[in-house]
Write a structure and sequence with these properties.
- This protein is elongated.
- The chain has a three-stranded antiparallel β-sheet, with no helix packed on it. It has a three-stranded antiparallel β-sheet with strand order 8-12-10, with no helix packed on it.
- Helix content is 6%, strand content 39%.
- It is mainly beta.
- The N and C termini lie far apart (74 Å).
- It contains two helices and 14 strands, in the order ββββββββββββαββα.
Length: 205
């Protein structure tokens, strides 16, 4: 009971799919999850009286990509974790869910809740499990991928100055771009303006 099977990605890769290949999640297996402290490890957990679980992972190269919102580089993949009586996860803006796993050390807690027999919740469903308790907890883990359409990312995250990053000595203003036929305003960084740039006329303040 509770024996772990690990599928570990090579250095520089992260898990983008994880399952209990051996199945039996609702009878002899506690489910599957991606490790919180290491996104390169998929874990399947044997259940009470189970024959032993086998973990299977698909790995993808970890990458940092440029931020369309002018910030520091972004991770292509993010790992999320939630544990408790009603664990639930949702990818942050600009990311989409590509994997959701569920597990609980107590057999039956995942039954009838959208979890298949390999410990996976389909991506068109909410990455969530309800009806557990603080003592008899459930856990869900998710892998989120940066959306490939950079314009769609910018629209979701920084369509206004609120989510746009500017450097020291700069500020964000909304400006119409000359090459945009729709005259849509976009966030742009400009140098901060002081109250007066000519001390001869304004005096020192």
């Amino acid at each position: 009971d509770d024996a772990h099977s690990l599928a570990t990605c090579p250095m520089g890769y992260v898990v983008t799919y994880c399952e209990a290949l051996s199945g039996l999640v609702h009878t002899k297996c506690d489910g599957a999850f991606v490790k919180r402290e290491n996104g390169g490890v998929c874990v399947a957990v044997n259940g009470w009286g189970g024959p032993g679980a086998v973990a299977k992972a698909v790995c993808s190269q970890f990458e940092q990509v440029s931020d369309p919102c002018n910030g520091p580089n972004l991770p292509k993949y993010k790992n999320l974790h939630s544990r408790g009586p009603n664990p639930s996860l949702k990818c942050p803006p600009g990311y989409e869910q590509i994997l959701c796993n569920a597990r609980s050390p107590w057999l039956g807690k995942l039954t009838g809740k959208g979890v298949d027999d390999k410990g996976v919740i389909a991506n068109d469903k909410a990455c969530a499990v309800t009806g557990c308790t603080d003592r008899y907890w459930c856990e869900v883990t998710a892998v989120c991928q940066l959306i490939e359409d950079r314009e769609a990312y910018a629209e979701a995250v920084c369509s206004t100055c609120e989510g746009y990053h500017c450097g020291e000595g700069q500020e964000c203003v909304m400006m119409e771009m000359d090459d945009d036929p729709a005259d849509k305003e976009t966030p742009t960084c400009v140098q901060k303006q002081t109250r007066c740039d000519n001390t001869d006329l304004c005096g020192e303040d």
